[in-house]
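Input (ABC transporter permease):
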Amino acid sequence: MSMADTLAASRRQTPTQPGSRWLWLTLPALLFFCAFWLLPFARLLQIGMQNDRSTQHSGYWTVNTQPHYLLSLLNTVLLSLAVTLVTLLIAAIVGCFLARQRFTGRGTLLALLTFPLAFPGVVVGFLVVMLAGRQGLLAQISMSLLHERWTLAYSLAGLFIGYLYFSLPRAIVTLVAASEKLDRSLEEAARSLGASQWRITWDVIVPGLQPALLSTGALCFATSMGAFGTAFTLGTDLAVLPLTIYGEFTNYANFATAAALSVLMGGFAWLALMLARRLAQAKEAQS
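Output:
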């Protein structure tokens, strides 16, 4: 028997085990996950159980009993929800329009709408200051017309504008692609049956875009919950969780409360992602 026949016979006698092969292939990813997420997050949970420097209670107890921490959480959640809803509304309209219309300059317009993807949060905050700061365009126009300087940049309204500017390009990219995949024959069938444009939009287009809307909305909410660069550029006195965590960590060296707030913020973002996934799975099961 030749060497080739011997090797072939040994392969037939020792079948491969797909499970072990996949285990070895996923081992680097598992090690990376444990080293850069699981272990640091476990440490974060443990630090949050330590005593706060001011209340002498655990960080989690302090966060849930101090009104200013709860106010910061409420502001962050409401701001993120508002940004998510407005982003989805604008991006869905723009996405459907760009997916259905073909005109000169369409590619240029889409490129301009998605160009802010290259901007970090600090640059977005700087643009908001140039628009609605003390020396911004809005302040100059209001001063010329009403002899009163209007400023929005250093408030939650300015932060809303910054988060919206940061989220819109990402949502538009996703919803343009999702709108191009919609089955136009369903709309034609509904129109032939006498449905109005509003009924077609609500009963045909929105359900077709629902998976993309859910995933985009969840990512937008999670991003807005933890966005730091824009908030830090617009002012460190804003009562939102990223700045509150930064203040507790750097100004007061209050690691327990900072860790507890970080876990709380991450929990809300994780719940949003899980809820979007469950709703998408329920939608697929129904269809």
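The mean pLDDT is 86.
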